[in-house]
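Protein Record: Sequence and Backbone Structure Tokens
======================================================

Structure line: whole-number tokens from a learned vocabulary of local backbone shapes, matched to residues.

Purpose: to set a sequence beside its fold so the mapping can be learned.

___
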Amino acid sequence: MVPSGVRTGRWVAAARAAQRRPRVDSLGQPPSPESARTRAALYVHWPYCEKRCSYCNFNKYIPRGVDEGAVRNCLVTEARTLLRLSGVQRVESVFFGGGTPSLASPHTVAAILEAVAQEVYLPADSEVTLEANPTSAPGPRLAAFGAAGVNRLSIGLQSLDDAELQLLGRTHSAREALQTLTEARHLFPGRVSVDLMLGLPAQKVKPWLQQLQKLLRHCDDHLSLYQLTLERGTSLFAQVQQGTLPAPDPDLAAEMYQEGRTVLRDAGFRQYEVSNFARNGALSNHNWTYWQCGQYLGIGPGAHGQFVPQGAGGHTREARIQTLEPDNWMKEVMLFGHGTRKCVPLSELELLEEVLAMGLRTDVGVTHQHWRQFEPQLTLWDVFGASREVKELLEQGLLLLDHRGLRCSWEGLAVLDSLLLTLLPQLQEAWQHRTPSPESGG
């Protein structure tokens, strides 16, 4: 039975049937360079929230009489335009982020998915993720999103301490968060991710670890640990600057992270990325595309994308940012078919820097095969094999460079930012001294 208000199109009907089949972990070998140019992930930005959280500086707005039908039409139009511009033939995953996309209607989600499926091949079992806040996603509403084609949820719990939730400006209590999590797991078994923050002002290690242990008794197979970053322009930043809140202690945050990842490892979770943990193969396919520097299209106000436009000769990838303010974005979409405000071609070196920095965020690292897709001439051995600084990192057990490729060890993953301070200059130096090849491309 389909909840009222959700029109079932051909793709949505096929997707609902696919949801009843067992999930198969589809993260295997990377696609060939040719197919990589015709595949992409799609990010859809819903910019509206019920209120602004105290730590958030994302592109989000408190709605005042939003015409959802007009927003929906613009999202559909922009999706069609960018899919045609990119020459993409297959969309691997769709992620509805925000903002709070669980405030949108399931009909909007279904309309976008149907439009994508009409333009390109969108497999019925593609991962379709929706970010949800507990107060905007009661059980019946989650069921309606499932009927609209969503098959994975990312729930922003952030904390299981009511005082911390109040400090963060969240609209839900810990009890409501766990209730939503229970309902979500019933509707999307094995496909519910939760976020937990660490390093808050005055937060202590032991109580935080108790939160994590409690969450492990309730959570599904995917969990993300995010350290608070104080962003200028946020309420929390101002309170710390004014002295009404203590500044977060970086040493305590580092201890929480180390202790937390150990707890999760002992609970059977694989730390497949710096902040992300999964068991039973429940990795995020969509985010994996980012970390593997695959193409992705961003639609909606302020969305980011990276892809090679059709007709660019297959070499020049562009980083694109859509217009931030929703009303202006809508005007541009209605005039031009899309609201791309900024478009920056990426040089071959810039793309390689991203391949390195993003790939090393994962436990797989950068394999030789993956590196060759972006740089067929200059190998990982050429770049890092003779470096004295890199040799020291290898001897310290922070990095591994072998027949598989370059990757961080368990210890190295926790200090990746400091490792990149050595690795990125090494790449830049090797690039400057390389023998250019007319065959190499981005």
